[in-house]
Structure formats: C-alpha cells, structure tokens
Amino acid sequence: MSKIIKLDESIIRQVAAGEVVQRPASILKECLENSLDAGANAIEIDIEEGGVSLLRIKDNGEGITANELPLALQRHATSKIKSIDDLNSIHSYGFRGEALASISAVSRFEIESKHKDADIGAKIELFESDSTPDVYDCTCGYGTTITVKDLFYNVPARRRFLKSTRTEFSYLDEVIKKIALANFNVSFTVTNNGKRVRDFLAVEKGNEQERIEQVLGTEFSQNNMLVDNSENDYKISGWISKPYFSRGYSDMQYLFVNNRVVKDKAIAHAVKRAYSDVMQSGRFPAFVLFITIDPTVVDVNVHPSKEEIRFTDSKSISQFVYKSLKKITSQPLAASFIENTEFNINSILESNEFKPSKSEEKHDFSSSVILNDLTNEQQNAIASSIIIDNKTSVRQPLQSEQKIINNNDQQKSIKGIQHHPLGHAIGQLSGLFILAQNKSGLIIVDMHAAHERVIYEKMKTAYKNNGISSQLLLVPVKIKVECNILKRVKEIEEVYFQLGFSLSYSGDAVIIKSVPALLKKADVAALFSDVNIEISRYETSDSLTIATNNIIATMACHAAVRANDYLSLDQMNGLLREMEQTNAAEQCNHGRPTCKQLSLKELDSFFRRGT
Ligand code: ADP
Ligand code: MG
Which of 261, 258, 251, 191 is nearest to 217 (CA)? Predict the structure, then answer.
C-alpha cells in the first residue's frame, strides 16, 4: 500500500481552514469584508457565547444567486479576481476565495441569500462537511445572512485554544470597531446574547467625528487633531490624539491602507517618532489613520488573513507619515488651539501698518524670552495692547491701543488682537495657573509647563541654527565634581559649549563662566548637575547628538517659572502670546498638557443656565 495518499477534500478544507479561522473574530472579519465587498450599507451582527456557539452576519448587499451559492463555498472560488494581475488594482477586501470554504469546514454553517435580481432567496445548510450541498428556496430579504454555529465542533484541538467567552467577545468587538472606522457610510448593529450592545449609525461625509466618538469614545473625539496631507502619490488622512491624550498601551491605534486595516511596524514607528518630542516615553498616541496609495506599490497577498501588507518602498511611506504627523504635533498653538478662530497673527505682523511706537512699556517676561520671529517692537505692541483693569476686570483700551483704534486702516489688526486664541490674562491662581479669558470662555494655563515648552522650543531652534547664545556670569560658579565626571566633561567640552556653557577647570572643580542666556536666572549648580546626569546617559558622542533634545528639555525645566513666582498681568499676557507662537505649546516637554479651555457652553451647562 502506498504511504502517500491524497487527502479527502473535507480534510483538505479543514487543514486549510487553520490558516484563515483562528477564532470567532477571524470569521467575523471575513464575513464583514464579504458584506462590504457586496456593497452592503447596513449590517447586523448577532453573537452568542463569544461567537463560539453562534455568530450571525446579516447584510443588505447585492446577494448571491441560487446557482452560484454552492460555488461561493468552494475553495479558491471568488468573484473578485480573474487573473493574478488583478491583484495590482484590487479594490475589494477579498480575493483569495477561501473564507467561506474554511469557515464552513469547521462549523455548522448556513448561508441564506437573495440576489438583487432574484424573486426568491436560496439557502444552504452544511451540518457535516459536504462537498455537494443541496440548495433550497427560502423567503428572506435582499442580501445575505451567514450563520456560524458551534465553531470547531469537529476540531476539538482548536477549540481548546479559544479564550474565555468574554475575551473572545472583546476580539469580536475590536474587529467591529476596525471595520466601522473604515466604513463610515455603513450602519452596524450588534447583539450579544440577545442584548443590543452596539449601534453605529451610518454617517454622512463630513460628520465622521460622530462615528469616531461612537467607536472610540468622547475623550478621543474631543482631543484629536485632523490629519490631511498628500504628496506625490501618497495621501494620508484621519485623526491623531493630542499629545496629552496618551495611553499606556498601543491599543487605540488604527491604521488603514487603501481602507484595509493593517499592522505595519515601520509606520507605527514613524507615528511614534512624530510624537517623540511631545509625549512622555512609554506612552502611546491614539490614532485613526488612512493611507491611500497606488495599489501597484503594495502587496496585499502576504498574509492569509491579509492583516499585513508589503510596500515596495516602505521607507518613503514611513517618512511621508512621519513628516505629515510631525507637522501637526509640533504646530504652534495659534494654528491649532481653538477651532473657528478668526485670528491669524501672521497676517497682523505682515501688515506694515502695524508699527507701534517704541515708547511703549517693555515687560520683563518677554524680554527674558524673546519671540523667535518677532521684533521686540512687535512683541511689546502685542502684549501691551491687552491690559485689563485689575479692579473692575473690564478691559480698558490702552492709550496706544486707542491710537490704533482711531485709525480706520488698522481696524482689521485690532480685531485680530482681540481674538488671541489664548485670550487675555485675568489673574493667577495658587501661584501655579494663569487664568485667561478668550472668545470661547476660560483658559487655564499651567505656568511652569507652558513656560518650559516655550523655552525648550526656543533653545532647540537656537541649537539647530547658530548655537545657543550664552551669557557671561558676573561671578563665575565653581563646582566640585567627581573625577570621572570631570574627565567626561573635559572630553566633551565642545558639547557643553554648543549648549551655551563656557567652562574652565581648577583642580577637581569645574568653573562655569557663562550659561545659556535664556537660563541666566537659573540655579547654575543645579542646572549643571542635571545636565551632567542627562549627558552621562549617553555614552558615545553619536548617541549624545541624537539626545540633544533631551538635554535641552532638562535645561528648559530649569529656566521655566516656578510655582509661586508672581507674574504681573503683562507678564502673563506675554507668556500667552509666546505660547501662541510656540510649536507644540499645548503640552510641556514631558507630554503633560499646558492649558485647558473651559468653554462658556460647558460652564453654562455646569451651572444649569438656560435650562
Ligand atoms: P473572497 O471574498 O476572497 O472572494 P469568500 O470565500 O469570502 O472569498 O467568498 C466567496 C465568494 O462568495 C465571494 O467572491 C462573493 O462572490 C461571494 N460572497 C461571499 N459573501 C458574500 C456576501 N455577504 N454577499 C454577496 N456575496 C458574497
Ligand atoms: Mg471574502
């Protein structure tokens, strides 16, 4: 007798099913993709016991004719491709023709379908693997219903790999979320053990945030930033979390390439890098991102359940993703903080007519941290044009402002000034927070965190350009250090120099002669010690170069205003204006938020006004 035998069709199907069907969630994914490929816009899902005892997917797609119904269950039978070349321009989710064959091989399976041109529906019940099933007439609505019962009843070994009902349900739910995020115009309802648990209504174009909120919750929907960029043949769109809305896990990350949900390490890394400067390490951003690329430059046929794909040029796509997101995570507050703001500081500053007089009072705060792009005159004009009478809290125009108001040509500029995104300071709370009023309501700013960000961005820019400018100390500071630290400091003295320190040595002490100008008020000894600690983490000079941002962040922390520092209203306004111009000012260098808007609407609802 021959040792090698040809396996039975039913065994072949079961073996092959192993690749496609790992658990109920894999079945649901395949069936939902089939429904979407069939043009359905309403899908109902019923789940019992984590999908193991029952999974039913009902759609209103184009349906399958009675003739073709048995074919749909055969291996390698598909209506979606005819030749391998079709894969180069694939627009459907499916193409392998394996799902229904696999699912029906490992479950008690039933399919009911009424094709859009048919008068009556057709049905197949497959209770034991049967290669030539009977087709019955049935009365049903247009579309297709797939019922999968007793998963793995005939492959007990597989059943043992399933997790608890609750965990299997959570996998199913995750599949639904993914598919729902990529198909806004389709409604999804879900019952679990007879109870309605999800009800995602179809949303029109432009209202996608409603679906985002339903699927990912209010917190993400209220704390995200819109992505929309294209370059050459690449396009990216979607939503990414504001950096202070971070998570402990990478769970809220949804990536779609040509609307197919995929995992891709290089892209995930590119996203992470775009947040590296604004998010605490070990935290994860949340995102829903859609990348659209020419189907010929991506291979979707590298994974049985099509979760991984291969790009012909993965590097350039990752770079495109990084660049697109970095632009958003680092944009100045003026561009991002408040929606619908009419304010555009650049247009005011570009207008030549806006030339305030030199005599206007110069406030301390701005003079210690000078705006990168503005002249002193411009800064002073902006900050001093907003003054609030301390006693009455009614805004009084300054003399200089009155001057401008009287000039008709400059009405436009004034309108802009009154609409600063972060508003006007009205006071300080607990020596920690600036309270400000803007068009939408109340702004609360964490002084230290905000100032730290402003300084960090300034120093970073200065470091990149001609180096951080330094300030000679009136009295040099002598600091004793351990000999290994002294050795290291001497070795990389150039780095300290670039960071704005100038040093000399005396025995086992370092003498600090000058410090970065922005840090002239800092405690020099503490600053130097922290910089040493940060620098000692990077052994080679290469890693040090990469890490300069971390060192600068440490330094910025020393420069920033401290709790209980008293700031005048002018100084507070100075900081608010600086924040508006600072990249990524909404969070400090450690990813904590720097400011919070409490809208009048929220306050009204809290105080139950107008109800
Ligand atoms: P694939 O999706 O890769 O083509 P499947 O095994 O998932 O393979 O499905 C086989 C075929 O059955 C599909 O090509 C499609 O023509 C048909 N089909 C499956 N599910 C549906 C559905 N819900 N509505 C309409 N046609 C379907
Ligand atoms: Mg399919």
Answer: 251
Provide the β-strand partners of residue 255: 289
Q: Given this model, what pLDDT does residue 182 score?
A: 95
Tokens 């000012």 found at: 585
Q: Whose CA is nearest to atom 23 of ligand 1?
A: 35
* Spans of the chain below 70 pLDDT: 128-131, 333-418, 540-546, 563-564, 611
* Nearest ligand 1 atom to alpha carbon 98: 6
pLDDT at site 333: 65
Task: Using the Cα atoms of residue 92, residue 175, residue 172 and residue 217 in order, give the sign of their dihedral.
Answer: negative
| Cβ of 99 less than 6 Å from ligand 1 | yes
Q: Counting beta carbons within 10 angstroms of the beta carbon of residue 382, is it exposed (0 to 12), middle (13 to 18) or buried (19 or more)?
A: buried
Question: By the 8 A CB rule, do 351 and 322 touch?
Answer: no
Distance 105 CA to ligand 2 centre (A): 15
Q: What is the pLDDT of residue 404?
A: 36
Buried b (16+ CB within 10 A) or exposed e, 130-159: eeebeeeeeebebbbbbbbbebbebbeebe
Ligand 1 centroid to residue 34 C-alpha, Å? 5
Residue 33 CA: nearest ligand 1 atom is 2
pLDDT at residue 611, rounded to an integer: 62
Distance separating alpha carbons of residues 403 and 389, to the nearest angstrom? 18
Q: Name, in order, each residue with C-beta under 8 angstroms of 27's C-beta and a sequence gap of 6 or more.
A: 21, 51, 55, 103, 107, 148, 151
How many angstroms separate the alpha carbon of residue 143 from the centre of ligand 1? 12
What residues contact residue 54 under an 8 Å CB cut-off, 6+ apart?
A: 46, 47, 48, 147, 148, 149
Q: What are the contacts of 200-205 at 24+ separation with CB within 8 A?
A: 202/41, 202/42
Its pTM stands at 0.69
Q: What share of the chain is helix, strand, coil (3-state, %, to 5)?
A: 40, 25, 40
Atom of ligand 1 nearest to the CA of 100: 6
Tell me if residue 42 falls in helix, strand or coil: strand
